Amino acid sequence: MKIATMINSPSACAEDAAHFESLGYDALFANESKHDPFVKSALIADRTRVAEVMTYIAVAFARTPMLTATSANDVHALSGGRFTLGLGSQTKPHITRRFAMPWSHPAARMREYICALHAIWDTWHEGKPLKFEGDFYQLNLMTPMFMPAASEHGRPEVVLAAVGPEMTKTAAEVADGLACHSFTSEKYLREVTLPVVKDLLQRHGRSRDQFKLIGMPFIAFGENEEAIKASSKAAKQSIAFYLSTPAYRPVLEIHGWEDVHVEAHRLSKQGQWQAMGELVTDEMLNTYAVVGTAEECAKELKLRFDGVFDMICGYTSGVTGMPPEILKAIKSA
After folding, report:
1. Cα–chain center distance at 296
2. Does pLDDT of 89 surpass 90?
3. What is the C-alpha separation between 168 and 331, in angstroms, rounded?
4. What's the chain's Rg over C-alpha atoms?
5. How many other CB atoms sit within 10 Å of the CB of residue 140?
6. What is the pLDDT of residues 289-319, one digit of tens each?
7. Is 233 exposed, middle or buried, given 0-12, 13-18 or 19+ CB atoms closer than 10 A?
8. 0.85 exceeded by pTM
9. Nearest CA to 53 among 90, 24, 23, 86?
């Protein structure tokens, strides 16, 4: 199981990427929240030599397939073939109200989006005519002036973030891997996600070793009781945000906690974020997060996810990545 961490800002990418690589992280992730993930990925690629580079995630529907294909192609070449394009759909309010882009049939649209990316890369790297006609995207113009030179590193792999069965199916059908959401549990992974992935891979004649599974579980970490308590409180607030979101209700239902979603959703409409966090019990925290010292978290991560995830990061308050202390504990175990 490879270990990754997240870098949150362009300045941190420029200043810290080489240091994180030297600590032994196998991959460095660039997210999309307050900054452009491709700018951050390019900075990471420029300042590292062996670590894998990945967007975790870039919002697909905020961009056209051509814009995404261009950015990903450039970063992949810059990195010397170390880049993976991690995509996610985001939710309807963000796509329509924050990005002012269209939203409909997210799983079907994402499937077509990824196929469109490959059609573009087929044109650039294999010389095929650009002719993609889908229900959501039509691409049929590529003149020499706008065509990048083929790179010796080819096209990047594509990993898709998913929670529900439909998007998970899409990942297993057309992507090179699945990026599992932080708001999941070992039970949901083993009983819902993995069977869907296994079935679709078999149907498409693909083996499990041809498909990446990447995880980013919540981590409440500290080196003493007071620090663990503070981190646990922050983790509960993060978990509360997701349990209030209708799209993530199935992750609660498998544990019999769907009623908590109803109350959290009500509180979110009223902006009562603190009260939402108080709905998350210690049992829920320990289901959706690993909690403890570096050694305890490392042990629990390996117990839950070794043999499930091919690569693991972490969603840690104040870090949004895998703390170096836990990296060291995992590597030395």
Report:
1. 24
2. yes
3. 30
4. 20
5. 10
6. 999 999 999 999 999 999 899 999 998 876 7
7. middle
8. yes
9. 86
